[in-house]
Design brief:
The structure is a single chain. This protein is an alpha/beta fold and about 325 residues long. The chain folds into 2 domains: about 40-150 and about 270-300, Response regulator (Rossmann fold); about 155-270 and about 305-330, Rossmann fold, CATH 3.40.50. About 45% of the residues lie in helices and about 20% in strands. It has a 6-stranded parallel beta sheet with strand order 2-1-3-4-5-11, sandwiched between helices. A 4-stranded parallel beta sheet has the order 7-6-8-9, sandwiched between helices. Strands 10-12-13 form a 3-stranded mixed beta sheet. The longest helix has about 30 residues, at about 1-30. The chain is elongated and about 60 Å long. The chain starts with a helix and ends with a strand.
């Protein structure tokens, strides 16, 4: 009987040890975390200057608010290279590492992050329509673990700007990825705005950045100008559209300021660096425990800017009215 009892005790001890090991394994990410260090996972769908500017603005502003990399904050920056499978993998990695916050830049990565976790706060930026993307119940009160900023641009004003520069324009090409929810929203707005302005949209879709140059070439001889919304796929290869515009004297109007800096003709748009800073202001409230994402309204950047590129005007055979140059916030010569 004594040996049987001893054997039973050994069994209980082994079961107890196994249970402790299981608990430690489950909690390992928490124990690995450095004390008093906030970890933020940053994921963006593709690398291009506008999204990069948003990311840099976020990090810069957080540092100004006391969340400084190398002191009390760590950033893990990951790029999905335009691949949703990679985006989902990155989101899963951040969740397994139990980061304190995720910054998801652009709609596809925001959707991947939201699918991966309903607990970790998710900040979004450069997302055109968070409600249509299934990220929030409403702009005023998201009701989820997601909040941040939208980069919804004034599409109608951008087409009005095009008409102001080219009153004779009738046919406008628009290039976009039909797989991006943010682009579908903008093109819907563009269709209605074009109807009101007496313009006819010629739509061309692409599925990857490698097809952008061919799509732009397909518009030659069919359009008076080209409009590029804030579509991640097209913007990542914007230089291809600009080259066609220069070669065939077709003006290119874009949805954001950085595109003008890269060689497009004009826009009324947003500065993504400023948008990233605005996102950080919201993030700081969450990190300090002052607010919860579900109760923080998603914000827009209200300061829209006219940006003009006079060098691009020469290359694309365009003449920008002097009064428009006088009104511009930024003029590139």
């Amino acid at each position: 009987m004594a040996s049987r009892k001893s054997g039973m005790n050994q069994v209980f001890i082994m079961v107890g040890v196994a249970a402790v090991i299981a608990v430690l394994a489950f909690a390992l990410p928490r124990f690995n975390k450095k004390p008093d260090v906030i970890r933020i996972g940053i994921m963006q769908i593709v690398e291009h200057p506008a999204l990069d500017a948003s990311r840099n603005g976020f990090i810069q502003r957080l540092a100004e608010l006391g969340f400084e990399e190398g002191k009390n904050t760590e950033f893990s920056i990951q790029n999905a290279q335009g691949d949703m499978a990679i985006a989902q993998s990155i989101a899963g990695k951040f969740v397994s590492e139990n980061v304190d916050m995720i910054l998801a830049i652009a709609t596809p990565t925001a959707q991947a992050a939201a699918k991966a976790t309903q607990d970790i706060p998710i900040m979004i930026t450069a997302v055109t329509d968070p409600v249509a993307a299934g990220l929030a119940d409403s702009i005023e009160r998201p009701g989820t673990n997601v909040t941040g900023t939208s980069d919804l641009t004034p599409v109608r004003k951008q087409l009005e700007l095009l008409k102001r520069i080219f009153p004779e324009a009738e046919h406008v090409g628009v290039i976009y990825n039909a797989g991006e929810t943010n682009s579908l929203v903008q093109v819907d707005v563009a269709r209605e705005a074009a109807r009101i302005l007496g313009l006819q949209l010629i739509e061309v879709t692409v599925s990857s950045s490698s097809g952008v140059y061919e799509a732009a070439q397909s518009l030659v001889g069919r359009v008076d100008a080209v409009y590029v919304p804030t579509d991640n796929t097209v913007v990542s290869a914007l230089e291809s559209v600009i080259k066609v515009g220069e070669d065939f004297k077709i003006p290119v109007i874009v949805g954001e300021v950085d595109g003008v800096r890269r060689g497009a003709l004009a826009t009324i748009g947003i500065d993504y660096h400023v948008l990233g800073m605005q996102t950080a202001d919201i993030a700081a409230k969450i990190l300090k425990g002052e607010r919860e994402p579900k109760d923080i309204p998603i914000e827009y950047l209200e300061d829209m800017q006219i940006a003009l590129n006079l060098a691009a005007a020469d290359k694309m055979g365009a003449e920008i009215p002097q009064d428009l140059i006088d009104d511009a916030y930024e003029v590139i010569r």
